[in-house]
Design a protein that fits this description.
single chain; alpha+beta; 4 helices
Length: 154
């Protein structure tokens, strides 16, 4: 069983960095992630900032999130997350302007199991499974960008 893992994968997105980066905030993700419905604990309005705290539910799991590093001028954000009884982790997204109408987003996950449930989850999140997950993000984000043209994501 896996107790700790680190994965990183980069995707090329069909939009300028100032449209793409906000899509990696909790509010921005509601635009392209089906079922993503964060409950904002602080600040209640969901403004992304260091120290923000929110909760998500997926299936029978609840995950608590906190923004630990918010650097919008550098197009970088890092979240700490804990799914009680399962896993603790970090998610970091860094976007890089690749010219014109394209952006490269690098997504890094670090997880540590908190017990057998977490070990099972981490064992299933192989490198290939992680790449497949992030590639599905690329499909969702590019579909949103295509549909919404020059519209602001927030």
């Amino acid at each position: 069983m896996t107790n700790h893992l680190e994965h990183c994968h980069s995707i090329d997105l069909a939009g300028p960095i100032d449209r793409v980066f906000p899509l990696f905030t909790p509010i921005g993700e509601t635009l392209w992630v089906e079922g993503w419905d964060p409950e904002f604990l602080h600040p209640r309005g969901g403004e992304t900032q260091e120290g923000m705290v929110f909760r998500t539910s997926h299936g029978d799991e609840t995950t608590l999130w906190a923004c630990t590093d918010w650097q919008p001028s550098e197009h970088r954000v890092r979240y700490a997350r804990v799914t009680p009884g399962s896993r603790f982790g970090f998610v970091e997204v860094t976007c890089r302007d690749t010219g014109g109408e394209s952006t490269q987003a690098s997504i890094a996950y670090t997880f540590t199991a908190l017990g057998e449930t977490g070990q099972s989850y981490l064992s299933e999140l192989t490198e290939d499974a992680f790449v497949d997950m992030i590639e599905s993000w690329k499909i969702g984000i590019n579909a949103w960008l295509s549909k919404n043209g020059a519209a602001s994501p927030a």
